[in-house]
Write a structure and sequence with these properties.
The protein is α+β, with helices and mostly antiparallel strands. About 25% of the residues lie in helices and about 20% in strands. It has 18 helices and 31 strands. Strands 11, 12, 13, 14, 15, 16, 25, 26 and 29 form a nine-stranded mixed β-sheet that branches. Strands 1, 4, 5, 6, 7, 8, 9 and 10 form an eight-stranded mixed β-sheet that branches. The protein has a five-stranded mixed β-sheet with strand order 2-3-18-24-17. The longest helix is centred in the C-terminal third of the chain and has 18 residues. It is globular, with a radius of gyration of 25 Å.
Length: about 650
């Protein structure tokens, strides 16, 4: 179904295409010249070509011309539509199969030789058996399609912390997205002549074979978003560092440089090489005196991670700059400090809930050259998702249904006049315009608060590591660990309130926010963390925990959050500098009275005491629950 924007007489489809593809390559996609490949890369590609039998093979170079050609293919296939080139230059909206909208944890496997190496939090499959199954699935899986050879670097190519990879995929959407999310192209390929690389194989699992045009297989292979969810497999082989993904085109399952490489395989490499691969943002923070520090922070889903990475501080004189919003690779430098890089090159953000009120810098990051997936599209060629003001123009929803209207429910709390004065409130959970896990993919270079040191080869020095989650009560606004070991315990026992974005209820354990992404036994991962401070000359960062989400008896948040979180970061900054005082409690150090500058917030009397309170009764229950989790949830590990 075409939107009005696509079919309007003022902007014909061809005019839109031409405006978006000024660098179109007339030669299309020439067949690969195997002679330009480093020997090990060539062997990997030839083996996979023999297995998957694509019609053609193309070596990606990462150029703008190539990206334009990929997007033109996707537009012509009906996978994407171009957005308004005047208001969203270089932007496109993609629409997936309704069954292929998120990471597939039940179909994600750690394929080690020994089951114990996968641990209690991962799905395990025997390496040899799973590889045999994959070879059956991948046999002929790319018939009728083009294989894209995507050489890429995670982190700057010249960084001692960086790693290289090659993804072989039959998806133009994946090839285009990898250009945004990684450093793709000739420089990465050239480095593979002397360095190891992670081999990644991906197929949508729908070969274009001839047959009955009316059959379901024939039609699904030729759909705008081919996938094979019934046979979906996302497999990681820690002993060989290989990644194989079949049947899904969704980013978390197909952009194999992201969670698959940057966390699951990288965590194994980090364990073996003495560094950390973490599900953490990295930010630079500068105080009014011009002093600057760097912090890394881990938060589970829907706990304000991207908002913190791109915060606009409410306190004058303070500045936050973004190094990365999702993943941190950290290694000790020669001076004993822990240095971090952001291995990614783009932002892969959740769209719903992102707005100019919650995260203006994220919104500004995707105003151009962005690929939106499963969002609503307005009649004038812009995007819409829940959390944004509902425009007056017609909206096509993520399923490509035109004339979408929000579902309304009574405005029980009586705040304001409701949606367009109706007295009703929008029910964002019922039939939303944007799929709840819809995404925007944009170059991180477009972030208006990008840190000038974000691409330093040696990384930036980390002074503080912050853990946090959504907790209605118990956990104070902020507290500091007594030591590195205590901080490791805090991270290892993180719990967070389930949100509408998660298929869970109650409090969920998510150790260090890496539970779905640790590529080996989580208990060995904790041991690796504990061992870090024993590295020769190590000067480990201080560790803190924050909780922005305590509520009162009516369910209203006690802390304003967003830009006012700078008041908490100020205390953390000063604790690192040795200039802020604290009170020792059984769980760690909390700010002394009046250390957090909140006078201008006009909080109700007693609120700050409540926010920083350590309630013995609640913590006894917390420790009992943690003990149960450690003894039953993490044990016994299968042998």
């Amino acid at each position: 179904t075409q939107s009005t924007w696509e079919t309007s007489q003022e902007h014909t489809f061809r005019q839109i295409v031409c405006s978006h593809f000024p660098h179109r390559a007339p030669m299309g996609f020439p067949q690969i010249d195997y002679a330009v490949l480093p020997e090990k890369v060539k062997e990997f590609v030839l083996r996979t070509v023999e297995l998957c039998t694509p019609d053609s093979v193309y070596l990606c170079n990462g150029s703008q011309q190539e990206f334009d050609r990929l997007m033109e293919l996707l537009v012509n296939a009906g996978t994407c539509i171009p957005l308004n080139p005047e208001t969203r230059p270089g932007c496109f909206a993609a629409f997936t199969d309704p069954a292929d909208v998120a990471r597939a944890e039940k179909d994600t496997f750690i394929c080690s030789k020994d089951e114990r190496d996968a641990g209690p939090t991962n799905n395990w499959a025997p390496a040899d058996k799973k590889m045999a199954e994959l070879r059956v699935l991948f046999t002929g899986s790319m018939r009728g399609r083009r294989m894209y050879v995507v050489p890429f670097s995670m982190g700057p190519v010249d960084s001692p912390l960086g790693k290289l990879g090659v993804e072989l995929t039959d998806s133009a959407y994946v090839a285009a997205s990898m250009r945004i999310m990684t450093r793709m192209g000739a420089a990465a390929l050239a480095a593979m002549a002397t360095r190891e690389f992670v081999p990644c194989v991906h197929s949508v699992g729908q070969p274009l074979i001839e047959g009955d045009p009316e059959s379901a297989d024939y039609k699904s292979a030729r759909s705008p978003w081919p996938c094979n969810i019934a046979h979906r497999n996302v497999c990681h082989f820690p002993e060989t560092h290989a990644i194989w993904s079949f049947g899904s085109g969704y980013g978390g399952n197909s952009l194999l440089g992201k969670k698959c490489f940057a966390l699951r395989i990288a965590s194994v490499q980090a364990r073996d090489e003495g560094w950390l691969a973490e599900h953490m943002l990295i930010l630079g923070i500068t105080n009014p005196a011009g002093e600057k520090r760097y912090m890394a922070a881990a938060f589970p889903s829907a706990s304000g991670k991207t908002n913190l990475a791109m915060m606009l501080p409410s306190v004058p004189g303070w500045k936050i700059e973004t190094v990365g919003d999702d993943i941190a690779w950290m290694r000790f430098g020669q001076d004993g400090r822990l240095y971090a890089i952001n291995p990614e090159y783009g932002i892969f953000g959740v769209a719903p809930g992102t707005s100019f009120s919650s995260n203006p810098n994220a919104m500004l990051s995707c105003t151009k050259n962005a690929l939106f997936t499963n969002v609503g599209v307005t009649d004038d060629g812009d995007v819409y998702w829940e959390g944004l003001p509902v425009p007056d123009t017609d909206i096509m929803d993520w399923r490509r249904r035109k004339h979408w209207l929000p579902t309304l429910r009574p405005n029980y709390k009586g705040r304001g006049t409701g949606y367009k004065g109706t007295g009703y409130k929008i029910d964002e959970k019922t039939d939303p315009a944007a799929q709840p896990n819809s995404r925007f993919t944009a170059p991180i270079a477009q972030c208006p608060v990008l840190d000038p040191n974000w691409e330093l080869a040696q990384g930036v020095p980390i002074d503080a590591i912050i853990f946090g989650g959504r907790r209605n009560d118990t956990v104070p606004l902020v507290y500091q660990a007594f030591s590195w070991q205590h901080g490791t315990f805090i991270g290892a026992t993180m719990r967070s309130q389930a949100t509408s974005a998660a298929d869970q209820v109650g409090l969920n354990h998510d150790p260090m926010a890496i539970k779905p992404f640790c590529g080996y036994n989580i208990k060995d991962y904790f041991a690796h963390w504990l061992s870090m401070e024993k590295a020769p000359g190590a000067r480990v960062p201080k560790i803190f925990n924050v909780n922005w989400f305590q509520v009162d008896s009516t369910g209203q948040f006690l802390w304003p959050g967003f830009g006012d979180n700078i008041r908490v970061l100020e205390w953390i900054f000063n604790r690192c500098a040795g200039t802020a005082s604290a009170v020792e409690t059984p769980i760690g150090y909390v700010p002394s009275k009046n250390e957090l500058k909140t006078e201008d917030l006009h909080l109700a009397p007693g609120v700050m005491d409540r926010l920083l309170r350590v309630d013995p009764a609640l913590w006894r229950k917390e420790l009992a629950d943690i003990t149960t989790y450690i003894e039953k949830g993490l044990n016994p590990t299968p042998h």
